[in-house]
Amino acid sequence: xxxxxxxxxxxxxxxxxxxxxxxxxxxxxxxxxxxxxxxxxxxxxxxxxxxxxxxxxxxxxxxxxxxxxxxxxxxxxxxxxxxxxxxxxxxxxxxxxxxxxxxxxxxxxxxxxxxxxxxxxxxxxxxxxxxx
Length: 132
Prior knowledge:
There is one protein chain. This protein has about 130 residues and is an all-alpha fold. The protein is built from five helices and no strands.
């Protein structure tokens, strides 16, 4: 007799995410892993001294390890990532990839082209200024 395990049952039964505009993905874990790997590839071209690269790379590697270590268990991935449903995690991963690609275009790690006007970095009584 065929016995459905919980992850398999969830994939068979899930018809909707319940979120307008967010469809159920037929095979989300391989797509999520590919998206994380694409993000890491994009981040690899950013200089190692970039704080953005350091934090985004660490977070993306952690998430990729979760996906790879789940052995196809979507429920486990959803619980460990704590980003909602797996389709929401995939949406977030695609957004992170877009940000990494934009950072490459913007070259945010480079020094400012012009000195900021006096007082630009002062807020709420903080008078510190960034290194430029």
